[in-house]
């Protein structure tokens, strides 16, 4: 501890006494000097971000030193028109939007106007009514066993040759046949 009672404040350079001291990155600050360099908000150990010898709140630090560009917004769904000039950031020139000339549309765009086709009815399947199973997209109302019509879930189906079946119908029609395969007292009976 230097002569004169305490360490020097990292902000105002005056003596900091024990009762009013806040330490950060090996430096001492007065509680009243422990403020963001940009917005002047009070800081604490959970809200401080340090860059070299400067202290910032996490929001200002992110605006000044964080990633830039699309997708790196202010959080919580906010749209900010702040260019960062108050932080010493030079605003980038506005670039106009232009369409791409990509001759290869995505697999999603190649299908009927951007939607999948239900293998059962042949109609377009949109996201609100889509169920995926057996490697295809189905309407909720078409997602039924091809034999008995039982409603299915993606975990309770078996598929063969592009058609979907409940496990009972699949076992009965495509499973092993003969003595010991499903025609006894312990077998699962499936009535149609």
Strands, total number: 12
Count, helices: 3
Major sheet description: 2 strands, antiparallel
The run of helices and strands is EEEEEEHHEEEEEEH
Judged by helices, strands and strand pairing, the structural class is alpha+beta
Beta-strand portion reads 15-25%
Enter the CATH topology name of the domain at 7-66.
Answer: Cysteine Rich Protein
Uncertain runs are 95-113
Mean of pLDDT = 74
CATH superfamily of the domain at 7-66: Cysteine Rich Protein
Give the overall shape, derived from the CA principal axes: rod-shaped
CATH class of the domain at 7-66: Mainly Beta
CATH architecture of the domain at 7-66: Ribbon
Description:
This protein is an alpha+beta fold. Among the domains are: 7-66, Cysteine Rich Protein (Ribbon), CATH 2.10.110; 130-174, Ribbon (Cysteine Rich Protein). It has three helices and twelve strands, in the order ββββββααββββββα. The protein has helices at 58-65, 107-110, 167-174, and strands at 7-8, 15-16, 21-24, 27-30, 48-51, 54-57, 116-117, 124-125, 130-133, 136-139, 157-160, 163-166. The strands form six sheets. Strands 1-2 form a two-stranded antiparallel sheet. Strands 3-4 form a two-stranded antiparallel ribbon. Strand 3 (21-24) and strand 4 (27-30) form a beta hairpin. The termini are far apart. 14% of the residues are buried. Mean pLDDT is 74; it is low at 95-113.
């Amino acid at each position: 501890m230097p002569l004169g009672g305490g360490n020097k404040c990292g902000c105002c350079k005056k003596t900091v006494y024990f009762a009013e001291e806040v330490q950060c990155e090996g430096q001492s600050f007065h509680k009243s000097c422990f403020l963001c360099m940009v917005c002047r908000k009070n800081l604490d150990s959970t809200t401080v971000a340090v860059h070299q010898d400067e202290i910032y709140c996490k929001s200002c630090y992110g605006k000044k030193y964080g990633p830039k560009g699309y997708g790196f917004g202010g959080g919580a769904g906010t749209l900010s028109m702040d260019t960062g000039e108050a932080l010493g950031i030079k605003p980038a020139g506005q670039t106009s939007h232009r369409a791409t000339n990509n001759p290869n549309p995505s697999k999603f765009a190649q299908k009927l106007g951007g939607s999948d086709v239900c293998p059962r009815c042949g109609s377009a399947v949109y996201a609100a009514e889509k169920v995926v199973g057996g490697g295809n997209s189905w309407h909720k109302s078409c997602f039924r066993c091809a034999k008995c019509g039982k409603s299915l879930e993606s975990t309770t189906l078996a598929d063969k040759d592009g058609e979907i079946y409940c496990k009972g119908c699949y076992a009965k029609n495509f499973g092993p046949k003969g003595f010991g395969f499903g025609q006894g007292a312990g077998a699962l009976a499936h009535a149609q």
